[in-house]
Amino acid sequence: MIISDANRMSRLDCEELIAATHCSMPDAIGIHGHCYVLSDGIHTCSDACGGAGRVDVHATIHTSTSSSVVWCLERLMGLENSHDIFDQIDTPCQGTHLLIEGLERWHCYPQFTPFNFPPGFRAPC
Fold it and tell me: Rounded to an integer, what is the distance from CA 100 to the centroid of its chain?
Protein backbone atom coordinates (compact mmCIF):
# COMPACT_ATOMS: atom_id res chain seq x y z
CA MET A 1 0.00 0.00 0.00
CA ILE A 2 1.37 3.44 -0.87
CA ILE A 3 0.42 6.13 1.62
CA SER A 4 0.12 9.76 0.57
CA ASP A 5 1.29 12.58 2.82
CA ALA A 6 -2.35 13.64 3.19
CA ASN A 7 -3.08 10.36 5.01
CA ARG A 8 -0.13 10.56 7.39
CA MET A 9 -0.27 12.00 10.88
CA SER A 10 1.20 15.44 11.32
CA ARG A 11 4.17 16.14 13.57
CA LEU A 12 1.76 17.95 15.93
CA ASP A 13 -0.53 14.88 16.07
CA CYS A 14 2.48 12.74 16.98
CA GLU A 15 3.69 15.18 19.62
CA GLU A 16 0.25 15.14 21.25
CA LEU A 17 0.22 11.32 21.34
CA ILE A 18 3.74 11.21 22.77
CA ALA A 19 2.97 13.77 25.48
CA ALA A 20 0.32 11.39 26.85
CA THR A 21 2.83 8.57 27.56
CA HIS A 22 5.94 9.01 29.72
CA CYS A 23 8.96 6.95 28.67
CA SER A 24 11.96 6.57 30.97
CA MET A 25 14.23 5.15 28.27
CA PRO A 26 16.33 7.76 26.43
CA ASP A 27 15.26 8.40 22.84
CA ALA A 28 12.04 6.40 23.26
CA ILE A 29 8.72 7.80 22.14
CA GLY A 30 5.45 6.90 23.80
CA ILE A 31 2.40 6.07 21.74
CA HIS A 32 -0.85 4.69 23.16
CA GLY A 33 0.75 3.71 26.47
CA HIS A 34 3.79 1.92 25.02
CA CYS A 35 7.33 3.20 24.56
CA TYR A 36 9.18 2.58 21.29
CA VAL A 37 12.66 3.02 19.89
CA LEU A 38 13.64 2.11 16.34
CA SER A 39 16.54 -0.32 16.15
CA ASP A 40 19.51 0.87 14.13
CA GLY A 41 19.65 -1.69 11.31
CA ILE A 42 22.56 -3.59 12.83
CA HIS A 43 21.25 -4.55 16.27
CA THR A 44 18.12 -6.26 17.55
CA CYS A 45 15.61 -4.95 20.07
CA SER A 46 17.72 -6.23 22.97
CA ASP A 47 20.50 -3.85 21.98
CA ALA A 48 18.17 -0.98 21.11
CA CYS A 49 16.45 -1.16 24.51
CA GLY A 50 19.51 -1.84 26.66
CA GLY A 51 18.77 -5.50 27.38
CA ALA A 52 16.20 -8.18 26.61
CA GLY A 53 14.33 -7.52 29.86
CA ARG A 54 13.54 -3.98 28.75
CA VAL A 55 11.89 -5.03 25.47
CA ASP A 56 8.10 -4.88 25.49
CA VAL A 57 7.65 -7.98 23.35
CA HIS A 58 3.86 -7.72 23.33
CA ALA A 59 3.93 -4.14 22.02
CA THR A 60 6.67 -4.94 19.51
CA ILE A 61 4.68 -7.83 18.07
CA HIS A 62 1.06 -6.74 18.51
CA THR A 63 0.93 -2.95 18.28
CA SER A 64 3.93 -1.93 16.19
CA THR A 65 1.90 -2.23 12.96
CA SER A 66 -0.26 0.67 14.12
CA SER A 67 -0.12 3.53 11.64
CA SER A 68 0.38 5.97 14.51
CA VAL A 69 3.45 4.03 15.72
CA VAL A 70 4.98 3.78 12.25
CA TRP A 71 4.29 7.37 11.21
CA CYS A 72 5.33 8.92 14.51
CA LEU A 73 8.57 6.92 14.59
CA GLU A 74 9.32 8.11 11.09
CA ARG A 75 8.43 11.73 11.77
CA LEU A 76 10.16 12.11 15.11
CA MET A 77 13.29 10.16 14.23
CA GLY A 78 14.00 12.09 11.06
CA LEU A 79 12.74 9.50 8.56
CA GLU A 80 9.67 11.38 7.41
CA ASN A 81 8.90 11.28 3.71
CA SER A 82 11.59 8.66 3.11
CA HIS A 83 9.43 5.54 3.42
CA ASP A 84 6.21 5.39 1.50
CA ILE A 85 5.35 1.70 1.07
CA PHE A 86 3.68 0.10 4.06
CA ASP A 87 2.54 -3.53 4.07
CA GLN A 88 0.03 -4.65 6.64
CA ILE A 89 -0.33 -1.31 8.44
CA ASP A 90 -3.06 -1.50 11.10
CA THR A 91 -3.17 -5.29 10.58
CA PRO A 92 -1.93 -7.77 13.21
CA CYS A 93 1.52 -9.21 12.52
CA GLN A 94 2.24 -12.75 13.70
CA GLY A 95 5.98 -12.04 13.72
CA THR A 96 7.82 -8.75 13.72
CA HIS A 97 6.95 -5.63 11.71
CA LEU A 98 10.21 -4.35 10.24
CA LEU A 99 11.45 -1.42 8.19
CA ILE A 100 13.62 -2.64 5.31
CA GLU A 101 16.50 -0.23 4.93
CA GLY A 102 17.19 0.84 1.36
CA LEU A 103 13.89 -0.48 -0.03
CA GLU A 104 11.83 2.19 1.73
CA ARG A 105 9.30 -0.35 2.92
CA TRP A 106 7.69 -1.73 6.09
CA HIS A 107 6.63 -5.38 6.12
CA CYS A 108 5.50 -8.10 8.54
CA TYR A 109 7.90 -11.05 8.85
CA PRO A 110 6.38 -14.05 10.66
CA GLN A 111 9.75 -15.83 10.83
CA PHE A 112 11.47 -13.07 12.86
CA THR A 113 11.21 -12.07 16.51
CA PRO A 114 12.21 -8.83 18.26
CA PHE A 115 15.40 -10.67 19.30
CA ASN A 116 16.21 -12.33 15.98
CA PHE A 117 16.15 -10.49 12.67
CA PRO A 118 18.93 -9.88 10.15
CA PRO A 119 21.04 -6.74 9.66
CA GLY A 120 19.46 -4.26 7.28
CA PHE A 121 16.12 -4.34 9.06
CA ARG A 122 14.92 -1.91 11.73
CA ALA A 123 12.30 -2.85 14.31
CA PRO A 124 10.01 -0.62 16.37
CA CYS A 125 10.98 -2.03 19.76
Answer: 11
Dihedral angle, C-alpha 47, 43, 82, 104, nearest 10 °? -140
Provide the residue-wise pLDDT of the chain in tens; the chain has 125 residues: 444 444 566 777 778 878 888 888 877 888 888 888 889 889 999 999 889 998 888 888 888 888 888 888 877 767 655 555 566 778 888 888 888 877 767 888 999 999 999 999 999 88
CA distance 55 to 48: 9
Sequence-distant (6+) residues with CB within 8 A of 17 are 9, 30, 31, 32, 68, 72
Question: To which H or E segment does residue 74 belong?
Answer: helix 67-76
Phi, psi of 120, rounded to the nearest 5 degrees: 95, -5
How many Å apart are CA 35 and CA 33, to the nearest integer?
A: 7
